[in-house]
Design a protein that fits this description.
- The complex is a heterodimer of chains A (366) and B (300).
- Chain A has 366 residues and is α+β, with helices and mostly antiparallel strands.
- Helix content of chain A is 25%, strand content 34%.
- Chain A has two domains: 230 residues, P-loop containing nucleotide triphosphate hydrolases (Rossmann fold, 3-Layer(aba) Sandwich), CATH 3.40.50; 118 residues, Beta Barrel (OB fold (Dihydrolipoamide Acetyltransferase, E2P)), CATH 2.40.50.
- A six-stranded mixed β-sheet of chain A has the order 6-7-8-3-9-10, with helices on both faces.
- In chain A, β7, α5 and β8 form a beta-alpha-beta unit.
- In chain A, α2 crosses α3 and α3 crosses α4.
- The longest helix of chain A has 18 residues.
- The two termini of chain A are 38 Å apart.
- Chain B has 13 helices and no strands.
- Chain B folds into two domains: 66 residues, no CATH class; 204 residues, MetI-like (MetI-like fold).
- In chain B, α4 crosses α10.
- The chains are: A alpha+beta (366), B mainly alpha (300).
C-alpha cells in the first residue's frame, strides 16, 4: 500500500512530446482512473510508473521512494495488461506463481496465495489449464489473479476490459471495484471508456494530448467540468455545445447562439456581467433538456423551438436528436414523450444546469 | 462430369476440386510428374548401382533392381573386406560428421538465439546495417569464401582439426539462423516480456524463462537447418581436413575414388546408407519443416 506521485513528469519519444508536465498525487488506497482518448498519453503515463519506459524529466514517487531509476521488478507493483499477457507455455497456476517463484517465495506460501487468489476470482478449477484453453473472461481473471498473488503496493491496469464483450465488461467492472474494496490497495487504472472511469474511480484524471486537464471525483467532473474537452468527454451522450456570444440586454445577460437566445438566470449571472460581446461556447447536458409535456416543475426553463430529426427509444428514456437552425443537439427525455421525427416542439432547457466556456481558451467560466 | 468410367477414374485420380479444365489438370500433373522423375531418377540410379555386382557396374541396363542384385557393396562399406585385409572407416566418418555437425548446430543456435533477441528487441546504432550485412553474407557463394576461410583457419592453426571445421561451419550458418529466429521473436508479443519484467524477472530470466520456451519450434528448425547444411557439406571440409581419422563422411566416401580405380558400387552404397538417417530425420520433422519455412511471416 502506497501513495503515488507524478511530479513534473515529461516524456518524449524522439521529438514527440507525449507527456507534458504531468502532476498527479494518488493517495494511498485510492482508485484513480486515467481517462482520455486514444493516443492521449494515458498508457504512457502508466508505463512510466511501471518502469517500462524511462521518463524524460521529472520524478515518479511510489510511497516515499523516487523510482525513476528503479527496475520494474523492484518497484513493488503489479500490472494487468490489455492483452492479458499470460505466458502461453505455462499453466494458469504457473502463470500466477511465476512472480512468486522468481522471488523465491516458499512453495507452501505460493500454493496458499495462488489458491486464495483463485478462490476470490472463481478460477480454482482452471488452475491446471493452459491460457489458450480459456475464454476471454477467464484469461482476464487469471491476469488479475497473477497481479493479486504478488500482494504489491500498487496495482496498475492498462485497459483491461477493452477486449471483453459488453456484458462481461459490466460484470468485470463490478468485480474489479469489489476487489479494490477487498484488497484496500492503491489502484491506477487506464481506460478510454468514460463509463468505466465514472463507475469505478474514486477520482478521475482526464488527460488529453499529454496534459492533465482535470483531476477530481467522478461527480465533480461531471457537474463542474473545467474545460470544453472534459465537458465533452465525460457523459454519454456527450454534452451539447452551441457556439454563442454573451449579450447584455437591459440588466439581463443572454447567450445568443444566432438561432436562439437564452437568458442566464440572475443567480448564476454574476461571472458574466462584464463579458458583453464575448465569444463563448454554451453547453448543456442532454438530461437537462426536456420534452415540454413532461418537463419537471420549478425549473428555470428556457424554451427553444426545435425540430425532431431522429428518435432513439431506450425503454427507460428516449433520446431525441433535435435541430434548431444550424445547431443540432441531443435531448434525453421522458420515455412517454410523444415527439416523433419531423415534429416541432418548444424544448425546455433547464437553465440551472448550464455551462459556459471561453471560446478561445476553452476553459469554463463560472 | 460424365459417367464414362475413364473420366470417372481421371476425376478421382486428379481430384479436380477447383473446377479446372481437364487439360489444365493434365498439364499440371504432367509437369509435376516430369519434375518428380527428374528429382528421383538420380537417386534411384544410385540405389541401382549400389546393388550391382562389381562386374556389371557399367551396364546400360535400366532396371532399378539389377540382375544378380547383391548387398556385397554394403557389406564392404560397413565392415571392410577381410580378404583384402581392408578395414572400414565408415562408422568413423559418420561419427566425425555427427560430432562436427551437432557441435556446429548447437554453437550456431546458441549464438544466433542470443543475437537474434538483441536484433529483435533492442534499438541500437548499427542494428539495421547489421541485419543487412548478415543477409549479404548469405549472398556470397560458398566457393568464394573458401580461400579466406582457409587463410583464417590456418592463421588460427586449426587446419586439420575438427574444431577448425566447426568454426568454419558455424560462421556460415549463424547469419541465416539469426534471421530465422529474429523473425520468430518478432511475433512474440512484447507484453509477455513486460509482464515478466514487472513480475520480477531480469532480462536474462525473461529470455530463458519466457522467450526460449516459446521459441522451441523455431529453435528446432534452426538446429535442423544448420544440421542439414553441415551434414552433406564437402568443399569446406575438403579444404580444412586432410587426415583420414577426422574425415567427415563426404570426404570419406571419396576415398573409394582412388587414383586408378573408382569403386562406384561402394561409393553408391555409402551414399545410400548416409541418406537413410537424414531421410528419416526429414520425414520425422517434415511437419515442423513446413511450418518452419513460414515461421515469422504468417504467425499472428
Amino acid at each position: 500500500m502506497a501513495s503515488v506521485t507524478y511530479k513534473n513528469v515529461f516524456k518524449k519519444f524522439g521529438d514527440l512530446m507525449i507527456i507534458k508536465d504531468l502532476n498527479i498525487q494518488v493517495e494511498d488506497k485510492e482508485f484513480l482512473v486515467l481517462v482520455g482518448p486514444s493516443g492521449c498519453g494515458k498508457t504512457t503515463a502508466l508505463r512510466l510508473l511501471a518502469g517500462l519506459e524511462e521518463i524524460t524529466d521529472g520524478q515518479i514517487i511510489i510511497g516515499d521512494r523516487v523510482v525513476n531509476d528503479v527496475a520494474p521488478k523492484d518497484r513493488d507493483i503489479a500490472m494487468v495488461f490489455q492483452s492479458y499477457a499470460l505466458y502461453p507455455h505455462l499453466s494458469v497456476y504457473d502463470n500466477m506463481a511465476f512472480g512468486l517463484k522468481l522471488r523465491k517465495t516458499p512453495k507452501e506460501e505460493i500454493k496458499r496465495r495462488v489458491g486464495d487468489a483463485a478462490e476470490i476470482l472463481g478460477i480454482t478449477d482452471l488452475l491446471q489449464r493452459k491460457p489458450r484453453q480459456l475464454s476471454g473472461g477467464q484469461r482476464q481473471r487469471v491476469a488479475v489473479g497473477r497481479a493479486i498473488v504478488r500482494e504489491p503496493k500498487v496495482f496498475l491496469f492498462d485497459e483491461p476490459l477493452s477486449n471483453l464483450d459488453a456484458k462481461l465488461r459490466v460484470q468485470m467492472r463490478a468485480e474489479i471495484s469489489k476487489l479494490h474494496q477487498r484488497l484496500q490497495t492503491t489502484f491506477i487504472y487506464v481506460t478510454h471508456d468514460q463509463t468505466e472511469a465514472m463507475t469505478m474511480a474514486s477520482r478521475i484524471a482526464v488527460i488529453n494530448k499529454g496534459k492533465l486537464l482535470q483531476l477530481d471525483t467522478p461527480q465533480n467532473l461531471y457537474d463542474y467540468p473545467n474545460n470544453l474537452f472534459v465537458a465533452g468527454f465525460i457523459g454519454s451522450p456527450a454534452m451539447n455545445f452551441f457556439p454563442a456570444k454573451l449579450v447584455k440586454e437591459g440588466d439581463k445577460m443572454l447567450v445568443d447562439t444566432g438561432d436562439f437566445k437564452v437568458a442566464i438566470p440572475d443567480k448564476h449571472a454574476a461571472p458574466y456581467k462584464s463579458m458583453d460581446g464575448k465569444s463563448v461556447v454554451f453547453g448543456i447536458r442532454p438530461e437537462n433538456i426536456h420534452d415540454p409535456e413532461f418537463a419537471p416543475q420549478n425549473i428555470l426553463a428556457e424554451k427553444i423551438t426545435s425540430k425532431v430529426d431522429v428518435t432513439e427509444l431506450m425503454g427507460n428514456e428516449t433520446l431525441l436528436y433535435l435541430v434548431s437552425g444550424k445547431n443540432s443537439y441531443v435531448g434525453r427525455v421522458d420515455p412517454r414523450s410523444k415527439l416523433r421525427v419531423s415534429d416541432s416542439a418548444a424544448m425546455i432547457f433547464d437553465m440551472d444546469k448550464f455551462h459556459i466556456f471561453d471560446a478561445e481558451t476553452e476553459n469554463a467560466i463560472r | 462430369m460424365s459417367n464414362n468410367p475413364l473420366s470417372r477414374f481421371f476425376g478421382w485420380f486428379f481430384h479436380r476440386s477447383r473446377g479446372d479444365s481437364p487439360f489444365k489438370t493434365l498439364m499440371i500433373h504432367a509437369t509435376l510428374i516430369v519434375a518428380c522423375i527428374i528429382a528421383v531418377y538420380p537417386v534411384l540410379r544410385v540405389v541401382t548401382i549400389s546393388l550391382r555386382p562389381n562386374d556389371t557396374l557399367l551396364t546400360t541396363d535400366l532396371r532399378i533392381i539389377p540382375e544378380n542384385a547383391t548387398l556385397d557393396n554394403y557389406k564392404e562399406v560397413l565392415f571392410g573386406d577381410p580378404e583384402k585385409n581392408r578395414q572400414s572407416d565408415f562408422f568413423l566418418w559418420i561419427w566425425n560428421s555427427i560430432s562436427v555437425v551437432a557441435v556446429t548446430s548447437v554453437i550456431s543456435v546458441i549464438l544466433a538465439a542470443i543475437s537474434a533477441y538483441a536484433f529483435s528487441r533492442f534499438r541500437f546504432p548499427g542494428r539495421e546495417a547489421g541485419l543487412v550485412f548478415l543477409l549479404t553474407t548469405q549472398m556470397i557463394p560458398a566457393g568464394m569464401l573458401l580461400l579466406p576461410l582457409f587463410i583464417m583457419i590456418a592463421k588460427l592453426k586449426m587446419i586439420n582439426t575438427s574444431l577448425g571445421l566447426i568454426i568454419a561451419y558455424a560462421v556460415t550458418s549463424v547469419p541465416l539462423t539469426i534471421w530465422t529466429l529474429k523473425g520468430y521473436y518478432d511475433t512474440i508479443p512484447v507484453d509477455l516480456e513486460e509482464a515478466a519484467l514487472i513480475d520480477g524477472a531480469s532480462r536474462v530470466t525473461v529470455f530463458t524463462k519466457i522467450i526460449l520456451p516459446l521459441s522451441t519450434p523455431a529453435l528446432a528448425i534452426a538446429f535442423l537447418f544448420s544440421f542439414m547444411g553441415g551434414w552433406s557439406e564437402y568443399l569446406v571440409a575438403r579444404v580444412v581436413l586432410q587426415k583420414n581419422e577426422i574425415f567427415t563422411w563426404p570426404l570419406g566416401i571419396f576415398t573409394f575414388a582412388q587414383q586408378f580405380t573408382v569403386s562406384w558400387g561402394q561409393f553408391a552404397a555409402a551414399s545410400v546408407l548416409i541418406a537413410i538417417p537424414v531421410m528419416a530425420l526429414f520425414l520425422y520433422s517434415s511437419k515442423w519443416l513446413i511450418s518452419g519455412l513460414t515461421l515469422g511471416s504468417v504467425k499472428g
